[in-house]
Structures are given as C-alpha cells and as structure tokens.
Amino acid sequence: MDMTASLHGLIGGVLIGLSATWLMITLGRIAGISGILGTLITARPRGDSGWRLAFLLGLVSGPALVILAGGGLGNVAGRAGAVIGAPAGGVATMLVAGLLVGVGTGIGSGCTSGHGVCGLARLSPRSVAATLVFLAVAIVTVFVVRHVIGGGA
Amino acid sequence: MRSVMAYIAGLLFGLGLAISGMTDPARVLGFLDVAGDWDPTLMFVLGGAVVTHFVGYRLAMRRPHPLFASAFQLPTRRDLDGRLLGGAALFGVGWGLSGYCPGPAFASVSGISLPLAAMLAAMVVGWFIARRV
User: How the protein sits in the membrane (chain A) (predicted)?
Assistant: First the structure.
C-alpha cells in the first residue's frame, strides 16, 4: 500500500470534514457541491446566491493555490506532487458521464459530498442508502468497463 | 461576512480535494476498481471527512442557530423513494465512467481540458433535465 498517498487522503479528508463543519457552524448549510452549484445555476435563488458563489470561488482556488504554492502537495497517481489528474476518457465518454452525474445528483438530491460526507456524518438514512447505491453502481460500472469490455486493462 | 465564511469553507474543501488527490480521476477509479490494482486513497478521504464532520456537526448543533444565519437548513426527510435511489444509481454510472463527481470536476477547472469542459457542460444540462422529471 502507498502510505504517502493514504496519508494525503486522510489529511485531505479531514480538511473536507472541517469545511463541512465550518459551513454548518457559520451559515447552517450542508456542504453538498451538486446542491450548491446545481441550485445556483438552475434556480438562481434571490438572496441565496452570494454565499454559493463565494463557496465555489473558494472551491476552485483551493487546488489553484496548491499548484501556485509548488512543493508537490498534490496526490495524482503515478505523478508525485501533481495536483490535477487527466480525465479518464475522451469528450464522448465525458458527455455521457456528465449527463448521468447531473441528472442523477439532481433527482437523487446529492452527490459524494452532500450524501457521502455530510449525510453519513449526520447518520441520515436517505444519505446512507444513496451512498451505498452510488458506490455499488460505480464499482459495477468500473468492473464492466475495465474487466468485461476492456479485458482487464 | 456570509460570503467570507462561505469562501473559507470552499477553500478548505478545495484544498482537501487537491491534497487528497481526489482531483485525479485515476485515484477515484482505482478505488472503485476492486478487481484490479486497488487504490485505497478514497477510503481514507471519505473516512477522514466523515469522522471529522461527525464530531463537527454535533458541535455545530449545540448552538441555537448558526453564527451568521438565523437557522440551520437541514433535510428533514428520512424515507427512501425511487427518485433518491434511482438518482443515486444514475450518478453511480456516471461516476464510474468518468471518475468525476461534481466537487472534484468543478474544483479541477484550473487544469481544464476539453473532456473536463464537456463533463461540466453535460452535468449542468443534466441538472436542468432533473428539474423537469
């Protein structure tokens, strides 16, 4: 096991947990990215958009700052210290995947952050169920793509 | 002040994604590929985040209201329905195909590429569709 990668994961995970806690203590909001971004774009709620924009600006500036700071704090697989990994497929695959992620998180009211991090921590039965479903389906999807269609690549 | 607080939260989240390597779809897919060369990193990310927020959420709830808002806004439903589970399943397929969930995809815009731009654009279209079904 790659201990450095795991340690990076743990430290990053704690930061994500602190982020969710900070947003809850200061503004009383769930740190779910599909909800914050999706609602901002599709509904543009009056008087409820400023904090969403500010959060998203922070979300983008996090990795940008790590890149600017140098020092190899990133954790891209096989490229020690790099911050942003390459997409796993071409434009066609990403269009299909993006559509599924958008529709799925839209009607399922959340993604890995809202259901996975915040929902599990709140012990929400809906989030526990959603997380188990999207994890299981994603594992099956990767198995089919890599080992059934791709022949074990 | 609300915007400053939200920016700090977003920044912490973005730093967490970058340092943990979740801005690399290969790390995510490596975790999901249980029959291949398994990468446990995501397990540490989710574990660290959930345990931290498990404690932090309970500390937050000891207050009568948030520091800069009049009330906590929390989901109240506890029932399971087809939209929740069906939506989660569709999301799982998209996540497994790309290795991107919404947070890492959006946080990666400083390393934008054509496939990532396509992913983000399609995701937004998906959100609009979800509001109509």
Answer: Multi-pass membrane protein
**Class of residue B83 by CB neighbours under 10 A (exposed 0-12, middle 13-18, buried 19+):** middle
Give burial (CB, 10 Å; 0-12/13-18/19+) of B36. middle
CB pairs under 8 A between A and B: 538
CB atoms within 10 A of CB A109: 23
What is the value of ipTM here, to two decimals? 0.97
CB contact under 8 A, B10 and A54: yes
Task: Pull the structure tokens for residue A51.
Answer: 């904090």
pLDDT in tens, B29-52: 999 999 999 999 999 999 999 999
Q: Which residue has the tokens 């074990």?
A: A152
Q: Is A148 helix (H, G, I), strand (E, B) or coil?
A: helix
Q: Which are the contacts of B132, defined by CB distance < 8 A and separation ≥ 6?
A: none
Two tokens, residue B72: 């906590």
